[in-house]
Amino acid sequence: MGDHVSGKGLKRAQLARWTGCNLETIRYYEKIGMMPEPPRTASGYRVYDATHVARLRFILRGRELGFSIEELRGLMRLVDRGTQTCAEVKAMTDQHLADVRAKIADLKRIEKVLAATAAQCSGEEVPECPVLEALAS
Amino acid sequence: MGDHVSGKGLKRAQLARWTGCNLETIRYYEKIGMMPEPPRTASGYRVYDATHVARLRFILRGRELGFSIEELRGLMRLVDRGTQTCAEVKAMTDQHLADVRAKIADLKRIEKVLAATAAQCSGEEVPECPVLEALAS
DNA sequence: ATAAGGTCTGTAGCAACTACAGACTCAAGA
DNA sequence: TCTTGAGTCTGTAGTTGCTACAGACCTTAT
What we know:
The structure is a homodimer.
Chain A: H1 12-19, H2 23-31, H3 50-64, H4 69-81, H5 86-119, H6 130-136
Chain A binds a DNA duplex through α2.
């Protein structure tokens, strides 16, 4: 099938390879309305162009940064309408950043407890274990 | 209905309040075999005792520390058989700790990118936004 | 012509819950 | 005694974000 961009139009697997996205995930994003429905060949195959590549990259990059699908949907709606403002986007980003920091704090708390407890383990072939005691407490 | 421990035996809502667990989650843990099936009253109501309280606390504490249901199932199987050793439990804990640290690292990476990008925002009512540019890149 | 691969659809599965509908039971007040 | 309100029962569906099938097409290369 050859992966060179022949004139124009990518098939689904090509878009997947191009963006690093999973094949099925592309169809999923279309189903939930994150990706526009692409035109089809006469036999029903999806045909993607540069706008689809850009859109998918936007989603993937957003997901990498931990934005939820709904957050990204909101961002994209603004952009699609051309009504986005830096103020609004920054507010969403700051909110998301706060969520991320809260998650980090939570994981650090967990890490502390686990590390402190595991440090008390003898690591021997004995039934007593500080970890189990911590869970049973 | 009164929430004092009348002689012995808690109903489901009492166990929930006692442990801070969600009402439905108790039934869920029973369904997936994390909690033993409790005895029932003549009319079919579940009746819990101290062993159920202890078991549920174990699960909830483990979940708070980020252990998966399957990890906890493994731990509990060992304990139920009395075959657990500190060595084995410590190994599971260390593995889990490594997972937690990996998650922290990932979130910190995200935090850095978000903070750095948001810091470049003007925050004004203008359409250009560094966050959107970062997502589109 | 045929075989191998790509694509199509719909659907089911994952984790770990959470919530609801509709039926039943139980205890207390009028 | 009747009623009312709360608690409980069951099964099932929804959540988030994918991922992976099955079975039917289509396309391409040999």
